[in-house]
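G.,

No rush on this.
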Amino acid sequence: MKKKFNLLFITLFISFLCSNISIAKPRCELFYEEVYNQTSYPRDVDYISHGNQKDIGFRLYQKINESQDDFVLRKNSDGYYLVGKLTQEKFVGFDPYDFTKIMVGDAILEINNEDIRTSFDEKKYGKDIAEMFEESENVLIKFSRKLPDGEFKTFEIESKVKITSYNNPSLDILVENIKPNEKEGTYIIALSTDYTEYLTKEYNITKVAHKNLIRAEDRDEYPTNEEIENEQFDYEECTFSENDWERLNSRDPNYGVKVKNVVYEDNTKRYANYLVIPFFHDYESDNNSKETIVSYKKRTSYEIKNDFNLKSFPFDKQKIILQIENERYSLDEWKAGLTTWTLIQLNEFAKENQITGWDITNYDMSYKSFYNPFYGDIGDGFEVILEIERKSGYYIFKIILPIVLILMVCWSVVWISPKELESRLTITIVCLLSLIAYNFVIDKDLPKLEYLTVLDWLILISYVYATIPNFLSILSFSNINKRNKFISKLDFYGKKYGALSYVLIVIIIISANANLNPDYTSSALGWLTYAQK
């Protein structure tokens, strides 16, 4: 009898212990197990996160306001609103001369033959211009587009208001550091990204998150409506690795999102995970307020291909272009939504000029559509453009100025008597050899290109001008007894205009490049251009 009692006691003890272990299991682990094992349909991936929106094919262009806490609409110099985002594939244009399509930046002049400046209520509708119309209403829109040659073209497109549903994650793209490598035609960028979706009560992940991760303040139970209204509850935030999240077959704000033109991603600097946060929308007391935040957070470093025009080097300016697209969803299925924080951080980055050797002179961020030849459709995305100007002081004082000084020494021989041929040749040859040796020293700082930059032209002209005094010295020496008038004039003009002509040619070279490549020439040389923009 005693043995039976002991056996029963041990069994109860083990059951109690297991029960406590089960209860003590972390909430995130319970949440993960239930989400991973859920088999109910429809699945979370089958839902559309944003629905029943009016759409006429585009939204208006926004920019961040002066206080940097919200967006305002952007207008051109005449006060017309601009196209900021294409929202239907059929309207997306890539050719500026195709006037059956719309492009980001097109100015909207009239809607249904009314001037948009007076007919559109900006405060009421904001960027969503489609909200001013009724469903299925036909809308005639007149646009103006600036063409590549600087001319403007007006054209009309007819659209029809329709109701659409699509996935609409919020995107934060934070630029932390940029290092241009113009010699390789790339740049290295450190990025922090946060892609977020807000999932309502219909989603399985929302149901399971609220069940497992939210508790009343004073007990291990789901809070009552009164406790929710009074915010008397707490919640757990759960993180998951990329591999774990892929196993869930649940919502993925990062699905299909890709940085374009990536050469290399430094995985030693890569950190990424998913974050789940349950919450109540406005803390309302009904079940409709249940929501869950699913965020994909990532920090990494990319090397990205970039076109650099270095013809004006080292007095050049460049554009750093970062493009992000969704290659798996079409534009009609997935539309990106940038937050104010993206522009706020970009503005701070530009103010602090965090690119070594460059000044950030301007920046812009806009939505952009991309054609995907693999799937044959058009996907949504956006691009960030940073305009940067090279700090030329290093090249002026450590390369150009020493070369000029070597040339001045070289041309000083014209003031030595022609009889002193040996002295003159010694100086000119030493200067020429010094120029050659110096060129080898600075070679590592020069890009290797198939065309000549401003600095290449300066070095080439310097070689030519370094050899001229050699020939002048020999001709002058040979003319001591012959008294040839032509050679005497060469000697005279060499003394008077030799060094001066070198400086003049240098200015002409810089000026010519500034006029031939105004878009890629530093603003410091703007006074040299004939056509000011």
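When you get to it, here's the other one too:
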Amino acid sequence: MEFTKTLIYMVFFMFPLAVSAEELTEITILASRDRLAKAPVGLQTLSAADLARSRVLTINEALRKIPGVFARDEEGFGLRPNIGIRGLNPARSSKVLLLEDGLPLTFAPYGDNSSYFHPALERFERIEVMKNSGQIAFGPQTIGGIINYISAPTPAEFRGGVSMRAGNLGLRELEADIGGRIDASETGWRVDAIHKHSAGSRENIDIDVRDVGIRLEQPLGETQSIAWRANLLRERSQVPYSGLTAAEFRENPRGNPFVNDFFDIDRSGYSFIHGLRFGDSVKLRTAIYHTRLQRNWWRQSSNSLQRPNDASDPDCTDMKNLLTTCGNEGRLRAYRTTGVEPRVDLKGDTGVFEWTAQLGLRHHRESQYRLQVNGDTPNARSPGIGPNAGLREDDLREVRANSGFVEVTVRRGLFSVTPGVRYEDIGYARFDRLRGTRGETSFSATVPGVAVSFDVTENLTIFAGMHRGFAPPRVEDAIGIGGASVDLDAESSWNREVGLRWQSPEGLRLEVSAFDMDFENQVVSATLAGGSGATLTNGGATRHRGIEMLGEWRADAPLSPYVRVATTWLRDARFKGERFAFAPMVDSTTVTLQPITGNRLPYAAEVLGTLTIGADSANGLAVQLEAHYVGALYADELNTVALSVEGQRGRIGGHAVWNATVNFHASDALTWFGGIKNAADRLYIADLSRGIVPGAPRQWQAGFEYRF
């Protein structure tokens, strides 16, 4: 052990990597408890206790408790998250920055910020959501918001636990964790393992996920500490990509004809963090991270327009042939992401004002290796020889990004101001191996921001902020087929926010924010311009304005009743300027140009709301009732009202879903729980982007949690 410590000391003094020992368990803190009340930007948190009271099954269910967040269902288990913030399109969460312990969670945050997996919620101690100017300390996505998952720390003493639950729709879940300190060396360790299974929200779905995490921490004296984290995730699922046509939905709203669609994913993620403290005023932390992800989706349809009898598969002339002569498509993806990110925290006091500063650098690289293999049969796993079979895509895409930021907070008395700036320099390369062509392009951006706060009283803080929003395009949309650079601008906006945060001694807490997101260019799906949807395009100017509110009340009484309300009123989410889009005619073969100026943006519901009411009794019984409401929204830029034949256009009506949970704390170690999701079994449409996808049906669950 002494030899190991000596070696580690030598390595880190030769290569100055570096947050102090007490901060390594929360590697990057967006909203620590002591900062939350005085933060100059919109911040909300969900603790492990909040999630346990609700016994949430999916990340979507959890995030609906946060104002401004729209989390859309897909397969019914929350593994393909579709998260939008403040009216931004939730498709694949591409307009949100997802982090784990402050480090990138998605497999290609610069070149393809899409989410096709989600780690198990049980691994996290809390969830933090940040909006507006504080985002510039992270990047590259600095428009909608940041969702940061904080993993559970290593325990101070030996402890562990096991949790099991089961229910209808094939629900089975087993979670176990164990950890502690090794003798007097103060080496902390934690291992957690989770196995989850579900039959999803539609027929012919079978989802199986295994998630294992390991965390080690080692103090190196009083001023240094290191932490190492590894996570392995494996999913093997029978799950479709396509939604239903209108006729299929009417016949069987939870149907899924594509029984041979399978999705496999293997992900490994690693991070290494070294923290070093110089006195009480300087902290240096450096993180090294690396992820590998292999994603294979074998499917017979990519959307509700791709049905047997179309020209893409001449050997498949009818849905009756779906299980025999119809071929499939293998969308095979391999991703590699590596980066190093040092950050320095400084603080001081001039006697006139107090100040803190944070500055950091990042060098980031990612690669995408993409294959499309078309087979001749429903279960093919190799290229076929049919008219549309064979190797259809063989593409290597690479990103090199260097960035840096500085953010300073100056506080005098009751007033503080936090200016900051971020710089991004991004280089893209695309090698089309089928055509033997290569293309390169680059982007750079300076992202400034400023936030101010004023403590009106000890319990009331007013805050405001403004920052430049920035999001780079995907590699495939910046470099076209053949290597030609595409004139696709980076996404840019000016984001403004003003709000107040109030907390009374009687247990009442209130946060209200008014926001304005003014886009000079919002990058949207090409379907919004009448295209195929395979690429993105410059959507032009858009405007988002609204109000968010989070209110909480808890009484210090024998029953300890509590109420939590999270609401969003998105007054505006519209296209600006002289804007047109292609609209299909009745026969869906010809198109006409129609104006869309002033139309509402797709998937921008005007009203979102979640109401939670509960009580915790002294005898250990806790009950909770929750209602979640999503207002009506449009699925396309034309604001089509009637549901289209293919099920990809139309107005989705508003709906409310009720959940109920009961927890019984039999002892300090044992808790029994049960609950029901969508108690009224409300049938509603969740998504039309690839055809009609219904929301999750009624699901009950029961289980226990034992801690030792």
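Residues 2-359+371-707 form a domain with the Maltoporin; Chain A fold (CATH 2.40.170.20). Residues 1-22, 24-34, 526-536 have pLDDT under 50 and may be disordered.

Enjoy the weekend,
O.
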